[in-house]
């Protein structure tokens, strides 16, 4: 059974509502097992009703099986942190827990402080579920920010302003401004230069391609991948994250470069891929491993759930006989699942370093019993773990490459695998740059 050796080690997060999704998966629709709290009497006090619902959401939907005694103990430890007072004879079930909380709330006279105490307690409990810090209490703004990240939108950044061009700028004007920006950055020796270059490159990727630009203008969605021909033999495809548009981008780019008689080599770059929405993977993996294939698994409360691919081979990808998949220590979440699946089906050779090991699937759960009509809270909860090709959890382990570039013989091993020196040279150049 997939288990962590220790379930709790209470920590107090300094900021109550820090964003928990710096990486990892967000599953919106595809989780079949979404247990709802068992129907029972709802406490009349809105603060107790809120805590009761959060308790039930965790008990029924957290990835690991958790007993009432364990969960109650976590709430009690949270109460002790907030009140700075030990709780003698701590309860072992929710009923006893609510009695303690009711007593504490009666001693708090201000409604605002009651709200803060109840919200902080819920956030502390969620944050201390393993893996620590992944589950959190979300405000309405944080839920909106999460949705934007999953859909690859960034309302705070105008890509036209990044390149300093008008919205009706021609393709030539966009290119010229980009080149000028890059030239300026190359003269900059500050630590921020690399970040500036990444931002300019992203803006150019968004605005230089007609389809990407149209999508951005209409919905604010930015592209998640880029592709180019290295030579007549090698197609390079870089995927930065997974969003609802990623499958469409794959179809368009693979067809765009589906040309020539000698093109038979694909370099699929998943390095630094931050993951994102996992809902599209059954569609995204189909073009690589075929339709109706067992692609990956979720682990939830002692049970495994299989996910199959939803579409078949992509004709424009079939031509690639030599495939190298690049991964590194910053490859995480959905990208790790993809790497593990490709490794399982022997589709391409994984090359690089072991991935990050971020193997949780988070889901936002609505809280019906709110403590403030002006502010909506939700529970961002780790619902499942993902498993890699050997049925071990990705979490904390990562996905290991077939050829590790820390091995001084990696180039020789890659050459023995494909007997194609231009591929080795190209991979080396990509990694060095």
Describe the protein in words:
This protein is of the alpha/beta class. The protein has helices at residues 46-61, 68-83, 94-107, 111-127, 140-150, 159-163, 171-186, 193-208, 210-219, 246-256, 281-284, 286-289, 315-318, 334-344, 410-418, 421-432; strands spanning 25-26, 136-138, 225-229, 234-239, 265-269, 276-277, 294-300, 303-308, 322-327, 349-352, 360-366, 378-387, 403-404. The strands form two sheets. Strands 1, 2, 6, 7, 8, 11 and 12 form a seven-stranded mixed sheet that branches. It has a six-stranded mixed sheet with strand order 3-4-5-9-10-13, sandwiched between helices. Residues 1-9, 11-25 and 29-35 have low confidence and may be disordered.
Beta content comes to 15-25%
How would you describe the shape?
Answer: globular
Unreliable stretches: 1-9, 11-25, 29-35
Number of helices: 16
Find the count of extended strands (DSSP E, 2+ residues).
13
Taking all Cα atoms into account, the compactness measure Rg is 25 Å
How far do the termini sit from each other? 42 Å
Largest sheet: 7 strands, mixed
Q: What is the arithmetic mean of pLDDT?
A: 91
Specify the structural class.
alpha/beta
Q: What is the N-to-C order of secondary-structure elements (H for helix, E for strand)?
A: EHHHHEHHHHHEEHEEHHEEHEHEEEEHH
Helix percent reads 40-55%
Topology:
Blueprint: E1 25-26, H1 46-61, H2 68-83, H3 94-107, H4 111-127, E2 136-138, H5 140-150, H6 159-163, H7 171-186, H8 193-208, H9 210-219, E3 225-229, E4 234-239, H10 246-256, E5 265-269, E6 276-277, H11 281-284, H12 286-289, E7 294-300, E8 303-308, H13 315-318, E9 322-327, H14 334-344, E10 349-352, E11 360-366, E12 378-387, E13 403-404, H15 410-418, H16 421-432
Parallel strand pairs: 1-6, 1-11, 4-5, 5-9, 9-10, 10-13
Antiparallel strand pairs: 2-12, 3-4, 7-8, 7-12, 11-12
Helix pairs in contact: 1-3, 1-4, 2-4, 7-8, 8-9, 15-16
């Amino acid at each position: 059974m997939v288990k962590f050796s220790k379930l709790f080690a209470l920590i107090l997060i300094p900021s109550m509502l820090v964003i928990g999704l710096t990486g990892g998966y967000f599953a919106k629709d595809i989780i079949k097992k979404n247990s709802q709290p068992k129907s029972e009497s709802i406490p009349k006090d809105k603060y107790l009703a809120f805590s009761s619902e959060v308790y039930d959401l965790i008990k029924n939907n957290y990835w690991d099986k958790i007993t009432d005694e364990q969960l109650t103990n976590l709430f009690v430890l949270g109460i002790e942190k907030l009140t700075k007072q030990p709780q003698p004879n701590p309860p072992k079930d929710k009923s006893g827990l609510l009695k303690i909380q009711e007593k504490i709330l009666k001693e708090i006279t201000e409604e605002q402080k009651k709200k803060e105490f109840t919200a902080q307690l819920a956030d502390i409990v969620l944050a201390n579920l393993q893996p620590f810090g992944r589950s959190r209490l979300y405000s309405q703004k944080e839920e909106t920010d999460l949705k934007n990240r999953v859909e690859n939108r960034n309302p705070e950044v105008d890509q036209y302003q990044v390149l300093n061009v008008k919205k009706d700028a021609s393709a030539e004007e966009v290119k010229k401004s980009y080149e000028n920006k890059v030239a300026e950055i190359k003269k900059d020796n500050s630590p921020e230069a690399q970040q500036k270059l990444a931002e300019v490159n992203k803006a150019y990727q968004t605005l230089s391609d007609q389809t990407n630009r149209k999508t951005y203008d209409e919905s604010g969605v930015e592209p998640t991948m880029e592709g180019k021909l290295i030579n007549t033999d090698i197609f390079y495809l870089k995927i930065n994250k997974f969003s609802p548009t990623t499958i469409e981008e794959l179809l368009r780019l693979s067809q765009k470069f589906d040309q020539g008689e000698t093109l038979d080599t694909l370099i699929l770059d998943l390095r630094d891929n931050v993951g994102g929405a996992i809902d599209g993977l059954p569609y995204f993996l189909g073009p690589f491993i075929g339709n109706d294939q067992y692609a990956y698994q979720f682990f939830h409360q002692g049970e495994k759930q299989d996910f199959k691919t939803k579409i078949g081979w992509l004709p424009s990808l079939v031509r690639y006989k030599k495939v190298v998949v690049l991964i590194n220590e910053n490859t995480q979440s959905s990208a790790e699942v993809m790497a593990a699946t490709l490794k399982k089906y022997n589709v391409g050779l994984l090359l690089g370093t072991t991935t990050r090991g971020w193997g949780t699937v988070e889901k936002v759960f609505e809280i019906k019993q709110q403590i403030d009509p002006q502010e909506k809270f939700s529970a961002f909860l780790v619902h499942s773990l993902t498993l890699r090709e050997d049925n071990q959890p990705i979490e904390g382990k990562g996905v290991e490459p077939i050829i590790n570039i820390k091995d001084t013989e990696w180039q020789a091993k890659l050459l023995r695998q494909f007997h194609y020196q231009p591929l080795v040279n190209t991979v080396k150049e990509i990694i060095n740059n």
